[in-house]
């Protein structure tokens, strides 16, 4: 009888959620068989789409967590998120944004008390551990948010379903189709906009896509729409009516000349790589970009920080009133609390003296306020920070933090990660390109792209992220945090390291902290449009030797690297055209193992100068920098992989010709690494 009453109450609560235009989370915590049964009952009793998100779907409409991004821009009534074996926080946030007013987001969780110590499959994406690990800090934080939230529903197995007294809410009036005030004001300005670029950013469900559709309907000339996926443009199409004209980004980029229009609309623009966006923008007189600002990767924060900041004439607009649901929506509120989407106000900052603190994670229980503030600061400043980082900060092993505090407010944050310490054989195998275990970003890269086979055996502390409040920058706060990190690292690490998107300003900062530039990648990274750079600050004699070795290698190679990198680099070249023992080792690594071409450009150039064999593939690619396609066509090679093999064979021939004995000895020692597991 009690159960029937509860189910009836649930039906009534669902009806009043639809009336009030809100969504809520229901947590089903218990054994899998039990929660699966409840899902079937709920789906039967409450009509809706009932999208299942997770592996092993138990409902007809389903989506893998990894594919959740493809549903941005779609809308559903009710959904189930299966977190019984792991919780992908980005997918959970993405799902919450697609749910219509009146929806339940049913979160399936393990038994409540077991949850914190249960291994979480999602951890394999970010913990850099060979096996899934328990994530007690994040789960404690999530459980705390759930317990503290009187608007969500926690139903545990072996306990009756009890609905709290939800406070009454005003009736919600769904949008009528006419633009909201905020939308109307922006449309008004766009109608009169001179040639240029406008960007509309907002959290989920604020009417960005609808606004773009309305613009198309309103403009006198021709408008085109592009977006990462057509499936995500339903809302835009609905509001544009007959004026909707979609072209996929690839088609547009393949032949921009073929498409003429007065306006180009790029929906969910942040999911398109910056160089491609730049190309699209350059071709059309007026462009409207829309993007979501909420901290999952590929969404707008980085876009605003990096891409928009790089455009000269850009008008920015934001939308704040939710339209897909009512204001003060309980589900949005809970997700914001769990994933710290509520960003700090950066328009003011305490100006008093600062103190620095090393922050350690609580042994148990939920994370300190301080750690939460640090994450907010970092995610506001870094285009790549996502809920994955929040989870990593909380539960991955080997993380360290330094906060700069002024008048009880966190105004600076540094996040450091332990790296390296690989055993000798493994480090050599990484150097040769045979192995690439997870994690150890800089430590492994030093081996894989640098000139020291034992580089990954050293221990490093990598500055994973650093940020200072925008109103307190250039006051030596960043430098002081690094100085403290340096002092603290001295006990266990050979060097501090950093990997960053190279800009002159950032390099000046790292240089001022004492770092030495040791590597610059040869491709611009799609998401930031920058070259990846790595720098080291040695702490021990071994660290010093490694740093000098890599610095000298860069100086020796720079005149051959620079032509691949269209950004002047602050490295003084040393002209050396003869092969030395480091070159021989590296060339053998290319010829007989799997070292990538990009990591051997200097030594390959010196090899080509020292050898009079034709070596057409190598000369075409390395000396003349012809494209892979051009060489393949010229030499009738079937593709990228086959070309690499031909180049490796040419390098073998050249080494044999120069010194057969040395070549055989190096080949033997390299091939042994192949069998190391
Ligand atoms: C791994 C990573 O996190 S890489 C990304 C780094 N973080 C970011 O880009 C986030 C946004 N930026 C910031 O938060 C800050 O600007 C930081 C962390 C980069 C630097 O912190 P700050 O406290 O501002 O730097 P600090 O005052 O210690 O600078 C020391 C020196 O570095 C150099 N420097 C720092 N910023 C700049 C800049 N924007 N342009 C030129 N030089 C600079 C200067 O030489 C400066 O000394 P000076 O001011 O006496 O000339
Ligand atoms: N003025 C309006 N009148 C009627 N419906 C509207 C209006 N503006 C937006 N909507 C509807 O509100 C919902 C949310 O709008 P929209 O999809 O444009 O938001 P969004 O900010 O692009 O969301 P997301 O970030 O989730 O893609 C959609 O169903 C859309 O059709």
Short summary:
The protein is of the alpha/beta class and 677 residues long. Helices cover 41% and strands 17% of the residues.
Structure notes:
The chain folds into four domains: 2-156, Rossmann fold (3-Layer(aba) Sandwich); 181-318, Rossmann fold, CATH 3.40.50; 355-552, Aminopeptidase (3-Layer(aba) Sandwich); 581-674, tRNA(Met) cytidine acetyltransferase, tail domain (Four Helix Bundle (Hemerythrin (Met), subunit A)), CATH 1.20.120.890. 41% of the residues lie in helices and 17% in strands. The protein has 24 helices and 20 strands. The protein has a seven-stranded mixed beta sheet, sandwiched between helices. α16 (477-489) links the parallel β17 (459-468) and β18. The model has no long low-confidence stretch (mean pLDDT 91). Adenosine-5'-triphosphate binds next to α6 and α7. ATP binds at residues 177-178, 183, 324.
SSE topology sketch:
Elements: H1 2-20, E1 24-29, H2 32-45, E2 51-53, E3 62-63, E4 79-82, H3 89-98, E5 104-109, E6 119-120, E7 133-134, H4 136-148, E8 153-156, H5 181-191, E9 196-202, H6 208-218, E10 223-226, H7 234-240, H8 249-254, E11 263-266, H9 274-283, E12 286-292, H10 300-310, E13 314-318, H11 330-339, E14 355-359, H12 369-381, H13 387-395, E15 399-406, E16 409-420, H14 424-432, H15 441-449, E17 459-468, H16 477-489, E18 495-501, H17 504-512, E19 516-524, E20 531-538, H18 541-561, H19 581-592, H20 601-610, H21 616-623, H22 628-635, H23 640-658, H24 660-674
Parallel strand pairs: 1-5, 1-8, 2-3, 2-4, 4-5, 9-12, 9-13, 10-11, 11-12, 17-18
Antiparallel strand pairs: 6-7, 14-15, 15-16, 16-17, 18-20, 19-20
Helix pairs in contact: 3-11, 5-6, 6-7, 14-15, 18-20, 19-20, 19-23, 19-24, 20-21, 20-23, 23-24
Bound molecules: acetyl coenzyme *A and adenosine-5'-triphosphate (ATP).
């Amino acid at each position: 009888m009690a159960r029937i009453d509860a189910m009836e109450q649930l039906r009534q609560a669902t009806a009043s959620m639809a009336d009030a235009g809100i969504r809520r989370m229901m947590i089903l915590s218990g054994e899998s068989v039990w929660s699966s049964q409840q899902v079937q009952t709920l789906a039967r009793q409450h009509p809706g789409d009932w999208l299942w998100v997770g592996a092993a779907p138990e409902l007809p409409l389903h989506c893998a967590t990894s594919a959740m991004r493809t549903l941005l821009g779609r809308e559903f009534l009710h959904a189930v998120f299966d977190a019984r074996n792991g919780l992908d926080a980005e997918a959970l946030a993405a799902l919450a944004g697609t749910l219509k007013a009146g929806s339940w987001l049913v979160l399936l969780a393990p038994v409540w008390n077991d949850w914190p110590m249960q291994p979480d499959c999602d951890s394999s994406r970010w913990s850099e551990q060979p096996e899934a690990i328990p994530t007690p800090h994040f789960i404690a934080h999530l459980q705390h948010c759930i317990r503290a939230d009187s608007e969500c529903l926690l139903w545990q197995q072996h306990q009756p379903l009890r609905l709290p007294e939800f406070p009454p809410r005003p009736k919600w009036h769904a949008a009528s189709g006419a633009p909201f005030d905020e939308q109307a004001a922006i449309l008004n300005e766009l109608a009169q906009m001179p040639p240029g670029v406008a960007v509309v950013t907002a959290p989920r469900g604020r009417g960005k896509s609808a606004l773009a559709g309305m613009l198309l309907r309103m403009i006198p000339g021709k408008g085109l729409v592009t977006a990462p996926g057509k499936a995500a443009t339903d809302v835009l199409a609905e509001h544009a009516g007959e004026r909707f004209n979609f072209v996929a980004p690839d088609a547009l980029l393949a032949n921009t000349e073929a498409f003429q229009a007065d306006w180009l609309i790029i929906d969910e623009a942040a999911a398109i790589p910056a160089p491609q966006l730049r190309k699209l923008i350059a071709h059309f007189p007026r462009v409207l970009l829309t993007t979501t600002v909420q901290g999952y990767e590929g969404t707008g924060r980085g876009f605003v920080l990096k891409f928009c900041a790089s455009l000269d004439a850009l008008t920015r607009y934001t939308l704040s009133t939710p339209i897909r649901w009512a204001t003060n929506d309980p589900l949005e509120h809970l997700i914001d609390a769990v994933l710290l989407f509520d960003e700090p106000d950066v328009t003011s900052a305490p100006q008093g003296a600062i103190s620095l603190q090393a922050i350690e994670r609580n042994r148990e229980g939920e994370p300190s306020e301080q750690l939460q503030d640090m994450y907010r600061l970092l995610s506001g400043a870094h285009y790549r920070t996502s809920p994955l980082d929040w989870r990593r900060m909380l539960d991955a092993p080997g993380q360290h933090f330094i906060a700069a505090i002024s008048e009880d407010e966190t105004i600076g944050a540094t996040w450091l990660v332990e790296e390296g310490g690989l055993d000798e054989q493994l480090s050599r195998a990484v150097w040769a390109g045979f192995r690439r275990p997870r994690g150890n970003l800089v430590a492994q890269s030093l081996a894989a792209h640098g000139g020291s086979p034992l580089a990954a055996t050293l221990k490093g502390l990598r500055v994973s992220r650093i940020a200072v409040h925008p109103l307190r920058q250039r006051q030596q706060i960043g430098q002081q945090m690094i100085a403290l990190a340096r002092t603290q690292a001295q006990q266990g690490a050979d060097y501090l390291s950093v990997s960053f998107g190279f800009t002159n300003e950032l390099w000046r900062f790292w240089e001022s902290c004492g770092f030495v530039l040791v590597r610059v990648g040869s491709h611009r990274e799609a998401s930031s449009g920058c070259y990846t750079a790595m720098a080291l600050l040695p702490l021990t004699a071994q660290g010093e030797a490694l740093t000098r070795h890599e610095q000298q290698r860069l100086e020796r190679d720079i005149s051959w690297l620079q032509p691949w990198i269209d950004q002047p680099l602050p490295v003084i070249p040393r002209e050396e055209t003869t092969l030395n023992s480091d070159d021989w080792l590296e060339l053998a690594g290319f010829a007989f193992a799997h070292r990538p071409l990009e990591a051997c450009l200097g030594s390959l150039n010196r090899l080509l100068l020292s050898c009079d064999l034709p070596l057409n593939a190598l000369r075409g690619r390395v000396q003349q920098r012809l494209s892979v396609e051009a060489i393949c066509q010229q030499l009738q090679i079937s593709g990228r992989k086959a070309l690499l093999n031909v180049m490796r064979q040419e390098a073998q021939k050249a080494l044999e010709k120069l010194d057969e004995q040395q070549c055989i000895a190096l080949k033997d020692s390299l091939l042994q690494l192949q069998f190391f597991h």
